[in-house]
């Protein structure tokens, strides 16, 4: 079990998404870790979504659909960031599954392996 901050786990979860379609040990570990990280981040995501509702604005995506969001140019971005900051650094103990570099080398590029270094081990 290792401690990770909320913002680290958020980045880790994002890095797992391309692996969820893989088969074998790598896909299994990615799915397991995605579930564990998602569960650990529930409150963090709920808090972030509430702040986006409070300080965000309607943003159109490429398809023309409107969603609530906040960007760096928003007049409320600094307030959002200040309120969000203390929650980004809260740590959690999570027990993540690792996969050997050997297993990963068979299916991942070097760049992907760098992004997933936290999930890879020497054995």
Mean pLDDT: 93
Gyration radius, to the nearest Å? 17 Å
Shape: globular
Order of helical and strand elements: EHHHEEHEEHHE
Strand % is 15-25%
Describe the model.
The chain has one domain. The longest helix has 17 residues. The two termini are 17 Å apart. A two-stranded antiparallel sheet has the order 1-4. The protein has a two-stranded antiparallel ribbon with strand order 2-3. A two-stranded parallel sheet has the order 5-6. Strand 2 and strand 3 form a beta hairpin. The protein is α+β, with helices and mostly antiparallel strands and 123 residues long. It is 53% helix and 16% strand.
Question: What key attributes describe this structure?
Answer:
alpha+beta, two-stranded antiparallel sheet, about 120 residues
Question: TL;DR of this structure?
Answer:
With 123 residues, the protein is α+β, with helices and mostly antiparallel strands.
SSE layout and pairing:
Blueprint: E1 2-5, H1 6-16, H2 24-40, H3 42-55, E2 57-60, E3 66-69, H4 77-88, E4 91-94, E5 99-100, H5 101-105, H6 110-115, E6 120-121
Parallel strand pairs: 5-6
Antiparallel strand pairs: 1-4, 2-3
